[in-house]
Amino acid sequence: MDRRAHDLDRQDQRLQQLGIKQPSLPVPPTFLYIQTELCKTETLKDWLDKTKNRFPDVISKILREITSSLAYIHDKQYIHRDLKPANIFFAFDNSVKLGDFGLAKIMAEDHLGSSDAGRVAQSLTSGVGTFFYMSPEQVCETRTDVLVQNRYVRREQMC
To answer: In what residue span(s) does the Protein kinase domain sit (predicted)?
Structure first.
């Protein structure tokens, strides 16, 4: 204990012995804040809209970074549930960053290692996300009907 803290402790003890109550100080409010990395204003959606000549090595780098980011959050037992080009950002060093975790959900312990992974995945993602980027399995109730039809609402083309 440093000298100042020791002196304050002795002073408190002396005041208690004399029967003098110190006024209680109000507890300062507690704030929660999230600090994120500053990224460029351009998202993957913006890049796709403006870039006509997309080089395979650039596309490969972007896809690799997206998939490694998803692998990381899945290892932490989270599901993003709103993955779309507008939620993929570029840092100032041009690395890819996932954003907008407002719909993210943690996987329940009983879902981990489930033998019926398809049912579990559908229960965690069904009806959640941006409609134009949802897979047919998320939009429709029966997965088999959708797989037979093999229709997607919309797709982004990287090449």
So the answer is: 1-159
Q: Among 46, 82, 100, 110, which one carries the catalytic annotation?
A: 82
Please indicate, yes or no, if residue 64 is contained in any of the structural domains: yes
* 153, burial (CB in 10 Å: exposed 0-12, middle 13-18, buried 19+): exposed
Q: pTM for the complete prediction?
A: 0.57
CATH of the domain at 114: 1.10.510.10
How far is the C-alpha of 156 from the C-alpha of 116, rounded, in Å?
29
What are the tens digits of pLDDT across the range 4-35?
777 778 887 887 787 777 777 777 778 877 77
116 touches 87 (CB < 8 A): no
Domain for residue 115, yes or no?
Answer: yes
Q: How many domains does the chain have?
A: 1
82 flagged as catalytic: yes
How far is it, in rounded angstroms, from Cα 6 to Cα 33? 34
Three-state DSSP at 157 gives coil
In a domain, 133, yes or no: yes
Domain that holds residue 54: 39-149
AA identity, residue 72: Y
The pLDDT tens digits of the residues spanning 101-119 come to 888 888 765 555 555 544 5
